[in-house]
Amino acid sequence: MTTEQLTDASRPHLLRGVKLKNDQVRKTWVLLAPERYLRLNAISVDILQRCDGVAAFSSVVDDLTKKYGADRALIERDVRGLLVTLLEKRMLGL
Amino acid sequence: MTNASPLAPPSALLAELTYRCPLSCPYCSNPLSMGGRETEMSTQSWQDIFTQAAELGVLHVHFSGGEPASRRDLRELAAHCAGLGLYTNLITSGVGLTRSSLGELAASGLDHVQLSIQDAEKASADWIGGYDGGFAKKMEVAGWIAEEGLPLTVNAVIHRANVERAADMVDLAVRLGARRIEIAHTQYYGWALLNRAHLMPTRAQSEKAYAEVEERRERYKGQIVVDHVAPDYHAKYPKACMSGWGRQSMNVTPQGKVLPCHAAETIPGLEFWNARERRLADIWADSPGFNAFRGSEWMQEPCRSCERREIDFGGCRCQALALAGDAAACDPVCVKSPRHGLIAEIAARDSAEKIEGFIPRRIERDREKSSV
Ligand code: SF4
Ligand code: SF4
Hints:
The complex is a heterodimer of chains A (94) and B (372). Chain A has four helices and five strands; from the N terminus they run αββββαααβ. With 94 residues, chain A is of the alpha+beta class. Chain A has a single domain, classed as Orthogonal Bundle (Arc Repressor Mutant, subunit A). The longest helix of chain A has 17 residues. The mean pLDDT of chain A is 94. Chain B is built from 14 helices and nine strands. In chain B, a hairpin with a 5-residue loop joins strand 8 and strand 9. Chain B starts with 11 loop residues before the first strand and ends with a helix. The site of one iron/sulfur cluster has 14 residues of chain B, from loops.
């Protein structure tokens, strides 16, 4: 159900109470949410930094395709995968 | 070598700001003997602890108690933590909050609120919490939280008096706009252990409630996240208590004692250090109480050679002590424990008794008062 909600026109953003943090102690980016934190790899950080509630899903994918010089379909699959996970965890809004 | 890996920093600090609480839940995880207001740490001491916690690598600070809103400096503490980049969570009964104090907390940078409910039904909820009007107040507070746009988690502890309505509580949380609900079947420490014979549901009740809550998890997928803590006495393996002793989190009592979990002080012979006297980093690394059950050197059989020892860490130390008489023993909840049979016996015996009335949670001074 959440998978269909995410369309090209969606404007994904982290919900209030969900925050990116550059953790100086663990030397990694983390995503802070109620009662949990997730360690993020560089790609996830790149994705989430672009999810500002202004940029549409399609332009987030475009932008990352340019940055990584990779196949757009592959990038889209990765971005969608992360965002759907966060939607299901109630960490992301559209 | 089991202790070879370097000690990871703690990620969470549970700040038990005060033991004072207007409610008297019979399963409260606070100790049976609690100090009153005059023993509590100052604003400055707490702020110093939070500053050290941030340096040490703590990410989440949970304001807890008792009822943290009983502290007048809650807003100041929240603002201090927000300034340090700590994620702040208020664990509250709702009683003691006002519309304006909640607004001030939100403005100070509070990140998240965890609101307890005792039942999905008013009369029963107020009876369980021992506080008339508590349920109505909570409903009102949930509305304020939504108005502020703060993310909400509802917590509910399941026991015999509300087990029939476990799934209703999930429905209620959805209506309140919560993003998460924690449904925890009672864990028997502290007051809950004292009240076990009044709290223990039957196996059939537990299993039914468990299944109904799991059904809600599917039904509300994408709408609310259900964190479900299974009923211990009816389980096969124990829980990874605190995700392992001294691995991720620390509790600081209102008096500054730093503990690996709520009940750690029930284990005799362990030495815990106080944040009023020592640096938090030193306590985390060197306090004998924290080191007592880290790694797997301390384990006995069957845990020592068990393939699950890095999954559940042998279960809960406090429960091993309470039920097996030895804090280093395998948690008797585990099917592999030689004392596992005891669990079924206790569960059957305690769930057979009638609900007559709980032993209400009281701060000692009040207890003396009420007993004269
Ligand atoms: S469990 Fe109940 S009595 Fe204990 S601190 Fe929470 S609200 Fe108060
Ligand atoms: S034997 Fe010990 S480590 Fe193995 S499952 Fe049981 S409690 Fe966990």
